Amino acid sequence: MMSAANANPALPADWRDFLALTKPRVMTLVVFTGLCGMLAAPVPIHPVLGFTAILCIALGAGAAGALNQWYEADLDAKMKRTQGRPLPAGRMERQSALHFGVWLAAFSLFLMYVAINWVATLILAVSILFYVFVYTIWLKRRTPQNIVIGGAAGAFPPLIGWAAATGDVATLPLLLFALIFLWTPPHFWALALFVKTDYANAGVPMLPVVAGERTTRIQIGLYTLPMIAAAAAPWPLGLTGMVYGLTAALMSGIFLAMAVQVATRRTAPEDGMIPEKRLFKFSILYLFVLFGALVIDRWVG
């Protein structure tokens, strides 16, 4: 059966299609965590340079998203939630997406190197290459651990933001990297639980598809524990103050309660809002609040 991308000739793409290639919703969280990593650094950065660094992070993330959609156009055509993207919908040629992604990545790295520093440029390059080659090309179609390992790709922005301001890497941004890395499996598996059919139809070996819902729920609960430890660690280590520490404790407690509910659920709830959907939505808020608290804590301190 031919996909929508191959069944019809591509229509002329407009700017909205190129914007869609960059996955703007995902980019929002990437940019925010990168910005917070920069603002939490002990060294101030000139506003113009700071804006440039964040722009480079956004362009790099957009490039990775475009290359991901270029490579996965066949998978996207088989899943309901992605069939409307430019390539499976037939609004753009695959080669256009490839060229757009490559040039966007090259420009983001060139600008970061010229305007900021080589450390931030190197980490940005690693994040793009990791997402495209390790997660998208190597892991996504081969193993249910794709999210576990591939989660590192989305954990780099705080490191990049910190490095843009300081020119180096320290313990706090490494803990932020660990937080996002450990947050990714429960966040994404919560989503995978209620779109499992999509992944099954596309032949993607997500954990709920190959190991079942019960195993996935247990894994969500298990990964939540080290994630909470990574979120809490900066306060007792003296890297942050009370504002961040108390916020992390409160938000992590709520996250844990939701994760336990997901891990132990066996029947459909009466309210129609299944626990995994609640956890997925809250997990996004969780990162936004924690990183926002980190910046406020730094300013108060």
From TrEMBL:
Its EC number is 2.5.1.141. Pathway: Porphyrin-containing compound metabolism; heme O biosynthesis; heme O from protoheme: step 1/1. It is a multi-pass membrane protein. The keyword Transit peptide does not apply. The keyword 4Fe-4S does not apply. The chain crosses the membrane at residues 26-45, 51-71, 97-116, 122-139, 146-165, 171-195, 216-237, 243-263, 284-300. It comes from the Bacteria. One of its GO terms (biological process) is heme O biosynthetic process. It holds the Pfam family UbiA. It is found in: Cell membrane. InterPro entries: Protohaem_IX_farnesylTrfase, UbiA_prenyltransferase, UbiA_prenylTrfase_CS, UbiA_sf. Belongs to the UbiA prenyltransferase family. Protoheme IX farnesyltransferase subfamily. NCBIfam families: cyoE_ctaB, PRK04375.1-2. Converts heme B (protoheme IX) to heme O by substitution of the vinyl group on carbon 2 of heme B porphyrin ring with a hydroxyethyl farnesyl side group. HAMAP family: CyoE_CtaB. This is Protoheme IX farnesyltransferase. It comes from Sphingomonas pokkalii. The lineage of its organism: Bacteria, Pseudomonadati, Pseudomonadota, Alphaproteobacteria, Sphingomonadales.
